[in-house]
Design brief:
With about 700 residues, the chain is mainly alpha-helical. Helices cover about 75% and strands about 0% of the residues. It has 2 domains: about 30-45 and about 70-345, ABC transporter involved in vitamin B12 uptake, BtuC (Orthogonal Bundle), CATH 1.10.3470; about 375-450 and about 545-690, Orthogonal Bundle (ABC transporter involved in vitamin B12 uptake, BtuC), CATH 1.10.3470.10. The chain has 29 helices and no strands.
Length: about 700
């Protein structure tokens, strides 16, 4: 007799029970989050410089307070609270929508360079000298953010499980920010206040901004909810979504437009509040795994908005609880969220699957000895030429005879003053370029990662943090002390970066992603230090962070010269070990080379080189990326040839950037770091595109 099996009906008591439990759990989660936001809102209202506590706030809200207390609450604290609510909600929803449509857990307004694009667009608009109303500023910011997002998405694509989007977005952010900071230095009057705005603060003077941005945020939210079903269909895969009639490309374009619109509302109102759009959706995911109703976009997007609000208000409450009320006014909320986001990005980098695969060495290129000697001779001539030009040109032009008289001690007072201040700058630029190029060569060899570079990996950021900490706390510190502090900061940063990445075998994307997280955290800490110690001297901060050699003296250059000499000598002496380490994991061991020992030694040397370069010339990015690549393309992969060529290339690049920065628009000057960022960003993006192939 045939036995037939029947499928139980869909609405069995068990299924009904589970569905009811899921709905109950979802309601409980939403209620808990609403209560959390309400508690944070109440706490935020009671914090501030004025002695207005919970009782006064309650009376102000019910119309029973003293006029002075009511004015504080209504004119300052309530606008700050509503701005925090709006900014957190818009950024959280934007991040959730971006991650859903791209199937990428690292997608967010920050990683798409939306904030950097808006920053540059507003900087360019400020140059016109026109005072734009808030809505017009929002339109300008929207255009800039949209262009930046389009570039990043075009370079990285929207493939699932990749961190390439973060790499492209972070590189573009560095380049766009460098251009904007250059504008701030060149046109301080027209761009006054833009640097402080860029730090991100929810403090408001009245409800005007909130009332104007709220409709924009509402349009973005409604638009996302209308396309939520299509976004859910994309989770099945592009082919499956097309099979059920979902226009994949149109849906993605629509979502990107809406998320940029939401981000623009937040940026226009409060400046860039970093990483809320990255962290809030990540907090939704474990809840969605437990309660399936929360996995649908119509629920997950508003939930991410609630969590974003909790993050922003929580950061503001924490800040005002930790530091004094007067200091909390000066410290932007965006600095706190950036610190939280940096830690989150590092944790995510160690857990996300690296789709770059195993890192393979560059294709073996054989170059003749004649090519090497010719290239080296040309670069030596280039170093000599750019050095002579850097010494003779500037706000005061000199002749070779003036330099000869200065060397002999017979120059006039004016020439002596000019060369006494200019010569250390030239030496600092040459040696900093050489040090960063050598550091990049060592790091790329040890990690076998073509994207590795001291600036991208956060090592330069750690060195800058150490140096700035000492400079702001001990203004009279000497050059050796500053170099030591920079080395300590770089050592801590490199320990975090290489320690997190080593567990995965220095996989290409993971290493760089951890480095970006560390660089973000150090930048936030530097901003915090500057704001707390000297909040009105933004030019000082920009000058240091732009990689300027301004004000350098010969004692400042001595530590760098000593470290470069030692570094080159060690690299040349250990050239065979460097070649073997750069091949693979097995070959060095088969030949009796202690891989761990050699790797640690080269990394320590690269950290020392980066730290002293930052101490002498500030933060200069991408030199350690461009110079080793160009050297290998010119003379092959043997490090006995790569090291001298990369060192010469780095010296030429930074010295030329410093020369251009102080002569093209003299007497105004731009730091060498800004110039190298403008050059290095396109090259980094080019490497991403080439590696994708």
């Amino acid at each position: 007799m045939a036995v037939t099996t029947t499928t139980p009906p869909a609405h069995t008591p068990t299924a009904t029970h589970r569905s009811g439990a899921s709905r109950t759990g979802t309601a409980a989660v939403l209620a808990a989050l609403i209560l959390l936001v309400a508690a944070l809102a109440i706490a935020d209202l009671t914090q501030g410089t004025a002695a207005v506590g919970a009782t006064e706030v309650r009376k102000a809200l019910t119309g029973q307070a003293d006029p002075a207390d009511a004015s504080v609450v209504i004119a300052s604290r309530l606008p700050r609270l509503t701005a925090g609510l709006l900014v957190g909600a818009t950024l959280g929803m934007a991040g959730a929508a971006l991650q859903a449509v791209s199937r990428n857990v690292l997608a967010a307004p920050d990683t798409l360079a939306v904030n950097a694009g808006s920053y540059l667009a507003l900087g360019l608009a400020a140059l016109t000298g026109t005072s734009l109303p808030l809505l017009a500023s929002s339109a300008v910011a929207f255009a800039g953010g949209l262009v930046a997002a389009a570039v990043v998405l075009g370079l990285s694509g929207l493939g699932a499980g990749t961190v390439r989007l973060v790499l492209a977005g972070s590189a573009l952010t560095l380049g766009l920010t460098a251009v904007t900071e250059g504008l701030l230095l060149l046109f301080p009057e027209q761009t006054h206040g833009l640097y402080q705005w860029h730090q991100g603060s929810i403090s408001q003077s009245g409800f005007g901004g909130v009332l104007q941005m709220a409709p924009i945020a509402l349009v973005g939210l409604v638009g996302l909810l209308l396309v939520a079903r299509r976004v859910d269909a994309l989770a099945l895969g592009d082919d499956a979504a097309r099979g059920i009639g979902v226009p994949v490309r149109a849906t993605r374009v629509t979502v990107v437009l809406l998320t940029v619109l939401l981000s623009t509302a937040a940026v226009t109102l409060a400046g860039p509040i970093g990483f809320v759009g990255l962290c809030a959706p990540a907090l939704v995911r474990p809840l969605a795994r437990r309660f399936r109703a929360l996995s649908r976009s119509r629920m997950s997007i508003p939930l991410a908005g609630l969590l974003g609000t909790a993050l922003v208000l929580g950061s503001d409450v924490l800040l005002r609880a930790v530091v004094t009320a007067d200091a909390a006014v000066a410290v932007p909320t965006g600095v706190v969220t950036s610190l939280v986001g940096a830690v989150f990005l590092i944790v995510m980098a160690t857990r996300v699957r690296d789709t770059a695969g195993a890192v393979t060495p560059d294709r073996l290129r054989l170059r003749s000895r004649t090519v090497f000697l010719t290239t080296t001779a040309a670069l030596v001539a280039g170093v000599v030429g750019v050095t002579i030009a850097a010494v003779l040109l500037g706000d005061s032009k000199l002749l070779l005879g003036d330099v000869a008289n200065w060397v002999q001690g017979t120059a006039g007072r004016t020439v002596t003053f000019v060369l006494d201040t200019r010569m250390p700058r030239v030496l600092a630029a040459l040696l900093a370029g050489a040090a960063l190029a050598l550091a990049g060569t060592l790091v790329q060899a040890v990690t076998r990662n073509p994207l590795a570079e001291p600036g991208v990996l956060g090592v330069s950021g750690g060195a800058a943090l150490g140096a700035v900490t000492l400079v702001t706390t001990v203004p009279l510190a000497g050059s050796w002390s500053i170099a030591g502090a920079a080395f300590a900061g770089a050592a801590v940063a490199s320990a975090v970066v290489f320690g997190c990445a080593a567990r995965g075998g220095f996989q290409q994307n993971r290493l760089v992603l951890v480095g970006i997280g560390v660089a973000t955290g150090t930048a936030a800490l530097i901003s915090l230090l500057i704001v707390l110690t000297d909040p009105f001297n933004a030019t000082k901060a920009l000058t240091w962070l732009s990689g300027s050699t301004y004000g350098r003296t010969l004692p400042d250059v001595v530590p760098l010269a000593a470290v470069v000499a030692v570094g080159v000598a060690v690299a040349v002496a250990r050239r065979t070990e460097l070649d073997l380490v750069s091949l693979d994991e097995d070959t060095p061991r088969l030949l009796g080379v202690g891989l761990s020992r050699e790797r640690l030694g080269f990394l320590v040397l690269s950290v020392l080189l980066s730290a002293t370069a930052v101490a002498a010339a500030g933060t200069i990015g991408f030199v350690g990326l461009v110079a080793p690549h160009a050297a290998r393309a010119l003379v092959g992969r043997q490090h006995v040839r790569v090291v001298p060529v990369a060192v010469l290339l780095g010296a030429v690049l930074v010295c030329a950037a410093d020369l251009l920065g102080r002569t093209v628009i003299a007497p105004t000057q731009l730091g060498a770091g800004l110039m190298t960022a403008v050059i290095g960003t396109p090259y980094f993006l080019h490497l991403l595109v080439r590696n994708r192939r």
